[in-house]
Design brief:
CATH topology: Collagenase (Catalytic Domain)
Radius of gyration: 16 Å
Largest sheet: 5 strands, mixed
CATH architecture: 3-Layer(aba) Sandwich
Order of helices and strands: HEHEHEEEH
Number of strands: 5
Shape: globular
Distance between the termini: 38 Å
Strand content: 15-25%
Length: about 160
């Protein structure tokens, strides 16, 4: 019975997440802290434009920490934080990937994994921060959350 309940709950969460443009969000007033675990070549200046992009839409971070203790960067997730990390993806079409940890309908933590150097590509960081703020893909050409890099743009609207 417990296994059936788990399966039903998992299926319901999956359906909700795949059918909603913004299924999850951080708790109101709970602005995440960004930790740069990618490395020294990912300078804070690369975050200025993407963070401003989302701030103009009402999605903010508390602050960005550049010099992060290596012990913290070993973690996959840390509650209240968005981690930026470097990782080669096995899929040649994946430039970057965001994973979220959700509990009780709220985002608790997010980690953005970039292929080496991909954070420098236009719109990639804005797109991945969109996932960290709770948005899913939207297949509308020119939208920042389009799943294909070639069709991404700077536009954002709620469907």
């Amino acid at each position: 019975m417990l296994l059936a309940g788990f399966a039903i709950g998992t299926a319901a969460v999956f359906k909700y997440e795949t059918s909603s443009f913004k299924p999850w969000g951080w708790a109101p007033g709970d602005e995440p802290i960004v930790l740069n675990c990618y490395g020294d070549d990912f300078e804070e200046i690369y975050l200025d434009k993407p963070l401003k992009y989302w701030a103009e839409k009402g999605y903010n971070v508390a602050f960005v920490q550049q010099d992060v203790p290596s012990e913290l960067c070993k973690e996959s997730f840390i509650d209240g934080f968005i981690l930026l990390k470097k990782r080669n993806h096995n899929d040649p079409y994946t430039i970057a990937l965001t994973e979220r940890r959700v509990a009780l309908g709220r985002i608790r933590a997010a980690t953005i994994y970039f292929n080496p150097g991909s954070y420098r590509l236009e719109y990639v960081l804005e797109h991945e921060l969109g996932h960290a703020f709770g948005f899913t893909h939207l297949e509308e050409e020119g939208h920042i959350m389009h799943p294909e890099y070639e069709k991404m743009g700077s536009s954002f609207w709620m469907p």
